[in-house]
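Q: What structure does this chain adopt?
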Amino acid sequence: FYFCTSRQMIFDQHVLEMHMNSADYFHFQTLHRPLPLPVLENFLFGQHELKADYFSLKDAPHVCFFSERMIKVFLFGKLSVAPQFILRNIDVKVTFEGPAIVHFSVKTVFGEMRMIKTLLPVAPFKLYVESRWWAESTVPR
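A:
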């Protein structure tokens, strides 16, 4: 894996909010509907399939797992544009290690990318968030 980038942000939310939103199907389908890519987010939208697992680690109840698969991509929210063979090869897994450490794994046809996101409360309902991305050598730079 090689280091890709890091980003620091401030969010106006409670430290538990990101963790709690993972269980909220409606939140995910609306907030994460635009693809998170500059410019493309204005006209490409996704429909997601979600699964959450809160109880598989009996000795670590603070850890939960979340998986997401994009099942459709729409142009302007109407016309389906991404073939299934592309969407089937994108696999996103998220591990919440308590409310403040989040691990992302995004597997694509090019290889795997990983992100670690940390959330630090700095004031009531204010979080300092840092994200760091790595990618396998097969992922284009």
